[in-house]
Every structure is written in structure tokens, then in C-alpha cells.
Amino acid sequence: MGLVVSEAPSLKIQKRHGEKGLALVKKLGIFNSDLRIEREEGYLYIPLAREPRKSELNELKAELPESEIRVHIFPQSVERQTALVDLLSDKLPPNILASLPHAIDFVGDVAVIEITPELQGFRHVIGDAILRAHRRVRTVLAKSGPVVGPYRLRAFEVLAGESKTQTVHKEHGCVFHVDLAKAYFSPRLSYEHRRVASLVKPGETVLDMFSGVGSFSIPIAKQLEDVLVYAIDLNSDAVELLKKNVVVNRLQGRVKPILGDARQVVNEKLGHAVDRVIMNLPERAIEFVDVACQAVRTEGGIMHYYEFSDAPQPLETVKRRLAEAVDHAGRRLESIPLARIVRGIAPFTYQVVVDAEIR
To answer: Averaged over 98-116, what is the pLDDT?
Structure first.
């Protein structure tokens, strides 16, 4: 049905407390009005714009002792899902209708879908229907291959609309100039971008080791004036887009784009200089744990580490591998405040994040 989903923090409460809970999150200014409240087995999931701060969490617990803060998957409105099927009902055989893409990624005014072999002959018809179902969309792209190479790029085919891969994407009050064919960008990591930004404290120096167009760096600097983010990437196209994003978000001086290899940059400039390191290169992050340990201040800091991991114990596997790599680098993994599955990327394979305190 062309299901579009958003992952966001939520307040999980019993249905009978729904009115009170909604009023409270609105009062605190953390209600996410872009998503619908979900109902499930006697509970409500009220979407939140961000993770509650400690004081807000204390107030929620005082007023609603049995409530929980949970990451929840919020589906897009049923009306849009139905619209795509309705537009194609007289153009596709029933068996093909049942095989329509399970997800659509929206990046600015570009929609990105995956076309399975049985849909190949109908791909342009599907693209035209998506254009009509989503009026803000100007281009529909189909993934033409896997993410490959050191720059994490993939090929795309234009199915409908304007022939382009460039767009302007807005997320959490930030503006991103993006070129999907030249620099990696995933709207599915939106929650992680906001979550990590919410954890950064005033006065911190942050290292974004594989920054791309600034998906983590820009929200961090946008949220806090008293912060410095070193944003490194090996891809010159990504760094040029990052520089543009720094300017359009008025973050000159707070985000410092650096073209180069993270290992070399840390060796030359950033040894024991940062409070927090972001390592969003899940295919190869394990190879750079020693670099992150070298960058973190001698008194310690925080690492946001991303890796791909397989079932049956993806979280435990990543935590163990990270602890071993930190120990091998001559530092100590003091604690793990959070470990979570970010998303599934294939059957029984997941992208995992571990927040680690390093000493």
C-alpha cells in the first residue's frame, strides 16, 4: 500500500489516562502534531517532538506514574495509502497491486522507492501514481542497486517527474541541500539525528567522523549556540553540500567542515580534543574505534557508535565487539547508557546504535 512510517519517541499510557497525558505533553511543548496518536491493546502512544528532558520526565512520572517513554513506529495516514492503490486499481493486475512498494522515503520533493522484479514492467505507471498521490513530490526515483563504495552511494532511475537527484530537505527545523546520487542521506535516521542532538550539552566539542551533508552536525549546532562540531567526510561532494548547509542554517563558526580521512585528521589536529564522537558508518565503524578513542578527551567522553548486526542477538553482539575494540585501543568502556535497534535493513539484519561512555 505504499506505507510510509516515522519513528519517534512517544508517551505510552493507559487509554483511560489519554486526555490527561495529551494535555500534559502539550503543556510541556513536546507534543508532535505531525503524527497521529496510536492505539494498541489498551494503551495510547502519544507522539513526542523529542525525548523529554529530566525535569519534564520527572513531571510526567509524577502525574502519570505508570507511563513510559518508548520509541514507536507511527504510520502515515491511511488516506494517502489508499489513494495510491485507488489510483492504480484500474491500471495494474490484482497480484501486482498486492506487491506495491512497502515503503516510500521522502527527501525534500523527491520520493524514493524500491521496485521488485515483478513490478519492473509497471515502474513508470507506479511513479506517475506517486506523483499524483503526493502533490509536493516533483521526482520519483527507484533504487537501482545497493549502497556501495567508501562514499555509501547507490544508483537511481527516474521513474516520473523532473530528472534530478538534488533537492532541499527540511528536518527538525534544519535545512539540508542534498544530492542523493553524490552524497549519502537517509530520512529514516531522522529520529537518531534529533536524539543525539538532544544529548549534547552546552560547551561541548563534538566530532562527527563521517558527517555526509551534516545530518547530525547541523541539528546539534542549531540547537546549541555554545558548541563546536568538527564534521569530517572523505567525499568532496558531501563536504561541498555540508558547507552550503552550514551557511543556509547560519551556523558559521559552530560547524567546521573538513574534507579528509577521519584517521588522518584526528592524528594531526584532534587528539584528545572532543567530548563526544558520532560514528555513523555502520559498515566500517569498528575499524575507527581506535581513532574515536584517540579523539576523546583524556578524562573521558561519549561515543555514538553505529554498526550492522545480525539476529539472534544483534545488540549484545555489537556491545561486545565495541567493548573489545575500546579495550584494544587502550581506553575503558565505562558504561552503556543506551543500546537500541535503529532499523531493519534486511531479513534478520539490523542497524544498531550503542551510546558508550569512554574513560
So the answer is: 90
